[in-house]
């Protein structure tokens, strides 16, 4: 499966979908600083898009500071660690959205996905950043995550207590 698969039925324009996908791949570390991106022609063929569409995406990414084009050499990923909006929370949200989308593509429904997440969180038993962790607070967080409502409140309370 191509990492550049786009949804032709979406109301989001294809060039925006591709741009967002590339931003995700860059900010998630799939492409690292200095990595060369596929050529415009190569990406156009892989994503089944017009050459001009991919060229527009690359120009937009360059204008936003995600990539730098070097004549006759290609497009290279810039250091985005200091870019506003590139945070671990946004990255985690993006990864979670990708995970949920993939689960749904495999036929899972929302309640099953919530239950699986709650089970995994309970099995892990601890936040790796907290050492041993507190099983009661992790169970509370997992329960809240399974219902989604209240998860943000619990997450904020835990951050405040650190």
Report what the structure shows.
β1 (67-70) and β2 (74-77) form a beta hairpin. 12% of the residues are buried. Residues 128-136 and 141-151 have low confidence and may be disordered. By secondary structure, the chain is mainly alpha-helical. The protein folds into two domains: 14-77, Winged helix-like DNA-binding domain superfamily/Winged helix DNA-binding domain (Arc Repressor Mutant, subunit A), CATH 1.10.10; 109-161, no CATH class. It has seven helices and two strands; from the N terminus they run αααββαααα. It has helices at residues 14-27, 40-47, 51-63, 88-105, 110-124, 135-147, 151-161; strands spanning 67-70, 74-77. A two-stranded antiparallel sheet has the order 1-2. α2 packs across α3 (51-63). It is 57% helix and 5% strand.
Radius of gyration: 19 Å
Rough outline: globular
Q: What's the N-to-C terminus distance? A: 41 Å
Which stretches of 5+ consecutive residues score pLDDT under 50? 128-136, 141-151
Protein name: GntR family transcriptional regulator
GO molecular function: DNA binding; DNA-binding transcription factor activity
Organism: Berryella wangjianweii
Keywords: DNA-binding, Transcription, Transcription regulation
In summary, what is this structure?
With 162 residues, this protein is mostly helical. 57% of the residues lie in helices and 5% in strands.
């Amino acid at each position: 499966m191509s990492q550049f698969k786009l949804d032709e039925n979406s109301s989001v324009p294809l060039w925006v979908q591709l741009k967002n996908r590339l931003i995700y791949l860059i900010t998630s570390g799939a492409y690292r600083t200095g990595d060369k991106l596929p050529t415009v022609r190569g990406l156009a063929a892989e994503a089944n898009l017009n050459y001009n569409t991919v060229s527009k995406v690359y120009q937009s990414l360059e204008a936003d500071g995600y990539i730098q084009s070097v004549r006759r050499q290609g497009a290279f990923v810039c250091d985005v660690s200091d870019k506003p909006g590139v945070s671990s929370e946004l990255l985690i949200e993006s990864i979670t959205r990708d995970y949920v989308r993939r689960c749904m593509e495999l036929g899972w429904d929302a309640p099953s996905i919530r239950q699986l997440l709650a089970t995994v969180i309970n099995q892990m038993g601890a936040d790796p950043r907290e050492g041993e962790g507190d099983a009661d607070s992790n169970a509370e967080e997992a329960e809240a995550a399974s219902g989604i409502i209240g998860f943000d409140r619990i997450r904020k309370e835990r951050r405040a207590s650190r």
